[in-house]
């Protein structure tokens, strides 16, 4: 995880980058990854990212996903 100060249009903010060590996310899943109950895990609930995004947006933030090289 990395965090750094970031200037936003309406003032100062923080940019936090998180990369896990999982198998990665296929590009075709990017459009659905924040949908409630959507999961790529056999025993997943599909709620974590949906809830996290709602919390971030309620506080004026944004949460998004990108595909990176390698795992995670």
The biggest sheet, with number of strands, parallel, antiparallel or mixed sense and barrel status, is: 2 strands, antiparallel
Structural class: alpha+beta
Indicate the low-confidence ranges by residue numbers. none
- End-to-end separation in angstroms reads 12 Å
Global outline: globular
- Strand numbers in spatial order across the main sheet: 1-2
Mind telling me the C-alpha Rg? 14 Å
SSE ordering: EEH
Q: Kindly state the mean pLDDT as a whole number?
A: 84
Strand content range: 15-25%
Count the helices. How many?
1
Helix content: 10-25%
**Strand tally:** 2
What does this structure look like?
The structure is a single chain. With 72 residues, the chain is of the alpha+beta class. Helices cover 15% and strands 19% of the residues. The chain contains one helix and two strands, in the order ββα. The protein has one helix at 48-58, and strands at residues 2-8, 11-17. The chain has a two-stranded antiparallel ribbon. The longest helix has 11 residues, at 48-58. The termini are close together.
């Amino acid at each position: 995880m990395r965090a750094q100060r970031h200037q936003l249009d309406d003032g100062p903010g923080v940019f936090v980058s998180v990369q896990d060590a999982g198998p990665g996310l296929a590009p075709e899943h990017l459009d659905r990854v924040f949908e409630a109950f959507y999961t790529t895990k056999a025993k997943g609930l599909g709620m974590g990212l949906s809830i996290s995004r709602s919390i971030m947006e309620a506080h004026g933030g944004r949460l998004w996903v990108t595909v990176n090289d390698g795992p995670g």
